Every structure is written in structure tokens, then in C-alpha cells.
């Protein structure tokens, strides 16, 4: 979790401080951007947030997060889009076969067709991120 000692080399290079600043009125850390780097929630942080918002135990929240991820994955494997009104939608996009070049040799090569996942934020999520909660 945030504020703990780095567990691997990636955490050490992220510029994390040894001491986490805390707000006097809240036991939660106050995060600041350092060197234009943004922080990201880890899965453990996200599970804790879901547990708090859903007024449930962390174990239940962990199962809920895992179930959500599995359900979205299963639907998308079948080619279905997942639409959550106000939050956003996950869509499967087909990428056709195309020509490319080997950057070292300049040799032409064929890039195989593939599928990609696209997330499009919904209006409520966009508004919340921009400080215009509705």
C-alpha cells in the first residue's frame, strides 16, 4: 500500500517519499504530484476504497473487484461490449492486418490482425474528473 517501504526496484525509482504527509483531520495520506508524475491506485488501494464506499469488509470488496474484472473479461472475450451508463463503456475494436517496417533493416513486414480494448468515459465520470459533479 502507499506509504510503505518500496517492495521492488520500480517503487524505488518512482520517487516515493519515505514519510507520507497526512492531513491533520484525516488519517488518509495527502498525495502530491512530484516531478509531473501522477500516482495510481494499486489493486489493494482500490479494494480498500471499494470496501469503504460500499460499507463492506475488504475480503468481500476484493471478491467483488475480482468478479467485476472477470465478468468484463468474459464478456469481451465473446466480443461483447460492456456499457455502464454514466461511468463508461469497454469496447472491443478489430484491428485489421496492415503493413509495417522493421525499423533496423527497413524490411517490409505484415502486422497480423488483432483485437484491442477501448474504454470510453461516460458523462458522469468526465464531469467528476473535471470537478463538475452532477
List key phrases describing it.
134 residues; alpha+beta; three-stranded antiparallel sheet; two-stranded antiparallel sheet; 32% helix; elongated; disordered N terminus
Describe the 3D structure.
This protein is an alpha+beta fold and 134 residues long. The protein is elongated and about 55 Å long. It starts with 8 loop residues before the first helix and ends in a 5-residue tail after the last helix.
Q: Report the sheet-strand fraction.
A: 15-25%
Strand arrangement within the widest β-sheet reads: 1-2-5
User: Which bin fits the share of residues in helices?
Assistant: 25-40%
What is the number of helical segments per DSSP (H or I, 4+ residues)?
A: 4
Element pattern in H and E: HHHEEEEEH
Radius of gyration: 20 Å
Low-confidence stretches: 1-23, 30-34
Shape: elongated
> What's the total count of β strands?
5
Described by its quaternary structure, the protein is single chain
Decide which structural class fits the backbone: alpha+beta
* Distance linking N and C termini: 31 Å
Mean pLDDT level: 81
Major pleated sheet: 3 strands, antiparallel
Amino acid at each position: 500500500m502507499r506509504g510503505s517501504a518500496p517492495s521492488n526496484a520500480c517503487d524505488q525509482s518512482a520517487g516515493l517519499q519515505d514519510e507520507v504527509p497526512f492531513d491533520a483531520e484525516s488519517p488518509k495520506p495527502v498525495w502530491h504530484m512530484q516531478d509531473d508524475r501522477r500516482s495510481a491506485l494499486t489493486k489493494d488501494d482500490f479494494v480498500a476504497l471499494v470496501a469503504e464506499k460500499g460499507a463492506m469488509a475488504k475480503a468481500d470488496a476484493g471478491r467483488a473487484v475480482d468478479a467485476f474484472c472477470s465478468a468484463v473479461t468474459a464478456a469481451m472475450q465473446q466480443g461483447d461490449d460492456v456499457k455502464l451508463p454514466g461511468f463508461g463503456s469497454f469496447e472491443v475494436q478489430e484491428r485489421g492486418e496492415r503493413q509495417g517496417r522493421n525499423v533496423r533493416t527497413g524490411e517490409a513486414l505484415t502486422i497480423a490482425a488483432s483485437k484491442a480494448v477501448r474504454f470510453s468515459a461516460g458523462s458522469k465520470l468526465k464531469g467528476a474528473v473535471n470537478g463538475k459533479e452532477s
